[in-house]
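Chain and conformation:
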Amino acid sequence: MIIALLLTSCNRQEEVRILFTGDILLSRNVRQEYRHRGTSPFENMQELFSEADIVIGNLEGAVGEVTDSVRDKNSLLFDIDKGDIGMLYEAGFGILTIENNHTYDLGEEGRDSTVVSLQKRGLAAVHSLNSPYFFTVKGVVVSIIAVNTISNKDYTARGIPSIELMQQLRLAKNLSNVVIVSIHWGSELVDWTVKQQRSIAEWLAQNGADIIIGSHPHVIQQPEIVNGKPVFFSLGNHLFDQKYDATKEGLIADIRIRKGKIKCSGILIHTAQNSFYPRVVREIDCGLKALRTNKLFNIGDFTLLPVSENSGVDSKIRLDGYSAGRKVWSSQSIPLVSIETGKLDGENEYLFTIEKHYSTIDNETDIRPYVYGADKRGIHALWRGSALAWPLVDAHISTCDGKTLCVLHRGDSYMNIDKSSQKRRLMSYRWNGFGFSGIIDSIPCSDCNDFYAPYLK
């Protein structure tokens, strides 16, 4: 299991090394080979993996057995024996992203079984519902967001731009030094980037992603810099049973963080014909320049470090408050969607969050706005709203004055709830000491309009 190291143990001169591999298959011919040979398919990788602080890969498939009900719906199924999950841990993996077009091969039950099986073997499973996932290594806070844009036969892929993904990116950027997006996209067996990949990469980079790592094409696509951020459009296969020459080549993203800077390179791997065991070939310079890490989140004298707390598929975040390099307090687990600070009254600094909670006002578990204060005892709620005047889509503190709350509402109301409504309304609010009051006359600055313009209908 990933264990967060305390800030007091941080040595800023130490290098953090993260390896991110391409697609991993533990089914079909791959499974047949490692069972026949009786050895780990990662046996040639262990020396390299042992040199990293954390190894991450994209696992395709679901833990469980193929039943008639799922076989009828999907002819291409990657079923994983839960007894084989231990090979990933023994090989050196710490995190597996499972957000791809094979996540639901065995239905929701299979997805849930995959998450639980990985967690039981000390591995973190990152998917859309628990993104961003936070972990800390040598004092560096890293977040991972898993995204799938490829449709599964029974489940809808995520469209981009997306309010939900924007919220995940904002939360990740505010609470971590480095934001990594693992995205399933593109076209299979196409070794060049398609237009959609490039436009999505631009949007992700603009909205907070520091490093973008792609999968799904099963062949390598040339890494590039997009809007100043390194993009590995496709790492190709790491462990797979496809037999085309191009699918036998893979790339490992080699991410190094030191002295507040991120450098990325690549490690080429090759799998011989008539085998599915990959081998290291050589390191390559991908032409990806170094970029600076984000600053950690502060309120007053406290630095807040996030800790992802997983329980099955669901995830909550605990905030640990540090002062002078020492942990002073820990919050309770929070179903956090967004977090930021602002001087809402023009003088004092407040914590504004969006969280998922149940409310009797609509009998739904949905996003709700909160305001907190912070002191040496921890964070304490000053205001807990339902969703202001109308159901909430998103909210953020305006950059123009640091105290105006820009809010995107749904088009329905609490008197006539209709979550399917595609209409949106824009509103701005000011803190009155006891809650928020709507600003009736006008939106006080262009930031509110500009920020939400792409999402207004």
User: Anything to note?
Assistant: Confidence is low (pLDDT under 50) at residues 1-12. The radius of gyration is 23 Å. The chain has eight helices and 31 strands. The first helix runs from residue 28 to 37.
